[in-house]
Design brief:
The structure holds two protein chains of two kinds. By secondary structure, chain A is mainly α. Chain A contains ten helices and eight strands. Chain B starts with 7 loop residues before the first helix and ends with a helix. Classes of the chains: A mainly alpha, B mainly alpha.
Chain lengths: 373, 162
């Protein structure tokens, strides 16, 4: 049944295979190996393209044409209201040359971003005002499109439901008297680990219970998102957990949860540190206040940097083959890539653990009640 | 720079999806799973505790058995001892009684013997007396056959009285 939901959503993304005549797909440029002077820049672009977001989910290239799943573009403008259309309307154009007109609004796509198109094209046929460094100056609509990362986010969420709900049903069906089987037996040690080693250890006996569901959700969410990011093809391939927006949301939620649950002692330690002279207290207050925001900021950067760096390393190692322009480099490149991949599988779990652990630690500091000072 | 600029769309969808996911999982998954796991842990804990209790009881029972056995043994020993004592007492009593009886019988016998001895002696004395008197009579008759001798005798006797 879950599988049906999954496919319904996938088809709702309006699968359409690209048939663009002229495209700027960088992977095929690279594969064509006609790079000369701009080789390094192009490889940079390829890597950045791969770890960035995109409006369609690229599957593979067929006879020089990219084949991809087009995803819905959802944009909002004050004049035109909400506009929804398939990204296939751009015909794989990413240079701002193809104008799509919806609800009286004209949109172009340029470097995986949607802009409001200029009235007329410039001498290159681009409907944008560009500065000297080729940055678009046009206004952007409010963009809530189902991009590759958003689609990957949905896949992560659905995957979690598919994995976890049947396990929960097993307990509902059998009660607590029987030993876990199947998915439940896989999940139970992890759940008990999160509950005992992450929540209980760091938050303490009195308060830990109410944070366990959030920490469990956080742990599995990051883990599955990380693992999906490691799969090189659909339904993986998106760099969701290496996207700063994704990690920012989780970090901000941690910030909110920690500070909403902050007890009197927690705030006292921030604004009026007990046990030190008054001048030091005045000195410490701004530092402590900064640390309130620095902690979740570190959470955001840690997950983002770890996942993105891993992707960059893998892509760089594979790119060695093209940089050195020799097939004989491939064994070394592949072995090194495999090595990094294995480390990344570990890192995927480790980062999920660290994020949940540190969130629990910060919650623990916030709810802690000191007896004396 | 592009890499570290969070996009609004993904922020929006991540927040929405993740919060929805937390809500759904908390309601339909983590709640029941955590409750079930906790219940099972508690029931295992209880089972262990009751097993411990049963073992303790078993131990107590065993101690009780031991105690009862010891008591029974002590009682048996006491009974045996009592029996032995009773037996000894009975034997002693019987011996004592037999002895007393024997002594009594001996005493009786002795008294009888004494009595008979005395009777025999009396008879003997009587017979000796009678015999003596007889003999004396006969001697006297013979002695006093002539008058002279009678006179001598009377004189002798008078002499004696003097």
């Amino acid at each position: 049944m879950h599988r049906n939901i999954f496919f319904t959503i996938i088809t709702a993304f309006a699968i359409s295979f690209g048939n663009a005549q002229e495209h700027e797909h960088i992977t095929s440029d690279l594969a064509a190996s006609d790079l000369d002077t701009h080789e390094d820049e192009d490889i940079n672009a390829v890597i950045m393209h791969h770890i960035g977001d995109s409006y369609d989910w690229h599957l593979f290239d067929w006879k020089g044409h990219p084949v991809s799943v087009s995803l819905p573009v959802i944009v909002y403008t004050n004049k035109g209201g909400l506009s929804v259309f398939s990204s296939s309307a751009f015909h794989h154009d990413d240079a701002g040359k193809e104008v799509v007109e919806v609800n009286g609004q004209r949109f172009v796509k340029y470097h995986e971003k949607i802009y409001l198109a200029s009235q007329s094209a410039n001498e290159d046929g681009v409907y944008l005002d560009l500065d000297e460094e080729h940055h678009a100056l046009n206004a952007r609509p409010i963009d809530v499109s189902i991009t590759k990362n958003v689609a990957s986010l949905f896949v992560t969420a659905i995957l979690m439901l598919i994995i976890i709900l049947p396990a929960a049903n097993y307990y509902k069906r059998n009660g607590s008297g029987v030993a876990p089987k199947g998915m439940a037996s896989f999940l139970e040690p992890l759940i008990v680990f999160v509950r005992d080693e992450i929540a209980l250890q760091n938050i303490g006996h009195k308060h830990y219970n109410r944070f366990v569901p959030y920490l469990l959700s956080l742990f599995f969410f990051i883990w599955i998102a990380n693992m999906l990011g490691l799969i090189p093809f659909i339904p993986g391939g998106a760099n969701l957990s290496g996207n700063i927006a994704f990690t920012m949301v989780l970090a901000v939620l941690s910030l909110i949860i920690v500070n909403v649950n902050g007890k009197k002692d927690y705030w006292k330690h921030i604004f009026w540190m007990p046990g030190v002279p008054v001048p030091v207290r005045i000195l410490l207050a701004p530092i402590e206040l900064v640390s309130v925001f620095a902690k979740p900021f570190a959470l955001m950067i840690r997950l983002f940097a770890n996942m993105t760096a891993g992707h960059i390393v893998i892509l760089s190692l594979i790119s060695l083959i093209f940089v050195l322009d020799s097939i004989w480099v491939s064994p070394a490149a592949i072995i090194l890539t495999l090595f990094i991949f294995i480390i990344k599988v570990l890192v995927a779990l480790l980062q999920a653990y660290i994020f949940a652990l540190l969130t629990a630690l910060f919650i623990g500091q916030a709810v802690e009640e000191h007896e004396h000072h | 720079m592009e890499l570290v600029t969070p996009g609004f769309g993904l922020i929006f969808w991540t927040t929405l999806t993740f919060l929805l996911l937390v809500f759904l999982l908390k309601k339909f998954a983590w709640g029941p799973i955590l409750t079930a796991v906790k219940d099972r842990e508690e029931s295992i804990d209880n089972a262990l505790k009751s097993a411990e209790k049963a073992r303790e009881e078993m131990k107590n029972l065993q101690a009780d058995n031991e105690k009862i056995l010891a008591e029974a043994r002590a009682e048996r020993d006491a009974m045996l001892k009592e029996g032995r004592e009773l037996r000894d007492k009975t034997i002693d009593g019987a011996k004592e009684a037999a002895k007393a009886e024997a002594e009594k019988m001996i005493e009786n016998a002795r008294e009888q013997i004494e009595m008979q001895k005395r009777a025999a002696m009396t008879e003997l004395k009587n017979q000796v007396a009678a015999l003596s008197i007889d003999m004396a009579e006969k001697i006297l008759r013979k002695e006093l056959a002539d008058a002279k001798k009678q006179e001598a005798l009377i004189n002798e006797m008078l002499e004696d009285i003097k």
